[in-house]
Amino acid sequence: MRQPVNAFSMIAVAILAAILSSLPAARGEPLPPPGPDSPDLVVVIKSERRLYLYQDGWPTHSYPIALGLNPSGHKLEEGDQRTPEGSYVIDWRNPDSRFYRSLHISYPNDRDRARAAAGNRDPGGMIMIHGQPSYSSRKRSGDWTDGCIAVSDDAMDELWSLIGQDTRIHIYP
Fold first, then answer.
1. Furthest-apart CA pair in the chain: how many Å?
2. If pLDDT is split at 50, 70 and 90, which confidence band does 35 have?
3. Domain encompassing residue 47
4. For the chain, what is the radius of gyration of the CA atoms?
5. Domain total for the chain?
6. Residue range 155-166: average pLDDT?
7. Is 23 a domain residue?
8. CB of 47 within 8 A of CB of 125?
9. Model pLDDT for residues 114-144, shown as the tens digit of each residue
């Protein structure tokens, strides 16, 4: 005879599933190690709407970007549609994103989590550099993301091939 499932077991399974689905391995794949032509730094200047790649202190590439619908200021909490500001790394990528490819930014860092906790807020996460939506043939313009950094699909192809594991990214106002 089967035992009835109690509410505690159902909650435990739901929590475990949420934790496992939030792990990078469950969402994407590691990036390749940096190659000889890989940038060692990505710089985003939000006010310029530009992303720059640097190698050995010199800019090598530049791309126009779109930001979150509420682009001014640092991301404070989940759902605020702001793009974070600070120092992070690009730590994994997703070839099967709902956008044309995506590169994960390691937001939130310890400082972001502490700031959010001080305000009793959830800092959010899943901040990516990504291409245009895969679910639509219409190309977006202006600021349109939920806090991510969007580029053209052609730019995403270049970033995908150039950026290696744990490349530093600095996001400025």
1. 70
2. confident
3. 30-172
4. 18
5. 1
6. 96
7. no
8. no
9. 999 999 999 999 999 999 998 777 788 899 9
User: Hey, which residues does 53 pair with through a beta bridge?
Assistant: 42, 61
In angstroms, the Cα distances linking 116 to 76, 78, 120, 125 are 6, 10, 6, 12
Q: Does residue 45 surpass a pLDDT of 50?
A: yes
Residue entry with tokens 């969007």: 150
The CATH number covering residue 117 comes to: 2.40.440.10
50 within a domain of the structure (yes/no): yes
Measured from the Cβ of residue 163, the count of other Cβ atoms closer than 10 Å reads 21
Give pLDDT tens digits for 7-34.
444 444 344 344 334 444 445 788 887 7
Q: In what order do the strands lie in the sheet with 102-105?
A: 58-64, 50-55, 41-45, 167-172, 86-94, 102-105, 128-130, 149-150
- 3-class DSSP assignment, residue 157: helix
Q: How far apart are CA 83 and CA 157, in angstroms?
A: 22
Nearest to 145 by CA among 164, 129, 162, 161: 129
Placement of tokens 């909490």 in the chain:
77
